[in-house]
Amino acid sequence: MAFANPVLRSYDNFPSQDQLLEILNYASDVEAQVSSWPDCVPEDWAWKPSHTFDNLPSYERKLYVYNRRCDIYHDIWVASIWNSYRSTQLMIQYLILQTLAYINPEPLSPLGHRIVTAICRVQEMVDDICGTVPFNLGTKTFGGPPDRKEVRYPDDGINKPSNDYRKSAAGLGGWFLMEPLKTAKKAICLREGQSEWVGRQIERIQRIYTVKKPVEVGVDEMPSPRCPGGR
User: Fold this and answer.
1) Distances in Å between the alpha carbon of 36 and those of 33, 48, 77, 127, 180?
2) What gap in Å lies between CA 168 and CA 143, rounded to an integer?
3) 212 touches 220 (CB < 8 A)
4) What gap in Å lies between CA 187 and CA 181, rounded to an integer?
5) In angstroms, what CA-CA distances link 129 with 10, 66, 71, 133?
6) How far apart are CA 212 and CA 123, in angstroms?
C-alpha cells in the first residue's frame, strides 16, 4: 500500500510525531466529509440483496459470488458510482493505517483503537465491492457476443433482468469493476481467502475483455499495522 507515500514525501525530512498526527487529523476530516455522501443520494440508489445464485452448487456459486453476497442496484451506473465512493473510502483508510503504522500506538490506546476501526471499515468497503461483482459480471467467464442468453444475471425474485441492464452489464460491467477491485486487492487484514477471490475476479475480467496482465511495478515498502489476532 503506497497511498501514504506522496503525503509523507511532501516533508523535507521524515515527518515528526506532530506532523504524523497532522496527517492523521487531515485524513480523518476528509473521511468525515466523504462519509456524509451516502446521506445525499436518492432513495432508489439503495442496493438490495438478491438470491438468484443461492440454488447453484457451492463450488459453482463461489466462482461468481463471495460469501453469498450478491447485491442489485438501480442500474450499472449507480453501482459504479457506489464503488467509486468505496474506493475513495479505502484510499483514505489506507492512508490512516499507514500513518498509524509510523506512529505505532499502544494497542489499547485511542489511536490503537483507531487501527481496529479503520480495518473494520476496510473490510466493510471490500465486502460491498465484492457484492457488486455478480451484478456487473453475472456468470460470464470468457469473451464472446456481448449478451449471450446463457449468461445469468441477478434479479429481485420478481422481475427478470431487463435487456438494457444485461447489455450495459455485458459491455461495461467489467470495466467499471476493474479499478475498485484493484483498490480492494491492496487491503490488509481481510477475511481469509477474500484477497485471493478478488484476484481471481480481476483475472476473470482480463479474460473476458482480453486485457493483458499489466507488468507489476515495485513500490517503496512502507510499514503496515499488525492485524488484530495476528492475521
Assistant:
1) 5, 20, 20, 19, 20
2) 15
3) no
4) 10
5) 31, 10, 10, 7
6) 29
Closest CA to 112 of 125, 127, 96, 126: 96
Q: Which of 83-87, 110-114, 169-173 has the highest mean pLDDT?
A: 83-87
CA dist 44 and 208 (Å) reads 30
Kindly tell me if the per-residue pLDDT of 217 is higher than 60: no
**What does the pLDDT look like over 85-94, one tens digit per residue?**
999 999 999 9
Non-local CB neighbours of 156 within 8 Å, separated by 6+ positions: 48, 50, 72
CA 68 – CA 133 distance, rounded (Å): 11
Amino acid residing at 87: S
**E strand or H helix at 71, and its extent?**
strand 71-72
Residue with cell 445464485: 53
| Element (DSSP H or E) covering residue 87 | helix 76-103
DSSP state of 69: B
In angstroms, rounded to a whole number, what is the distance separating the alpha carbons of residues 189 and 85? Answer: 21
Specify the pTM.
0.89
Work out the number of other CB atoms within 10 angstroms of the CB of residue 6. Answer: 9
Cβ contact 217:2 at 8 Å: no
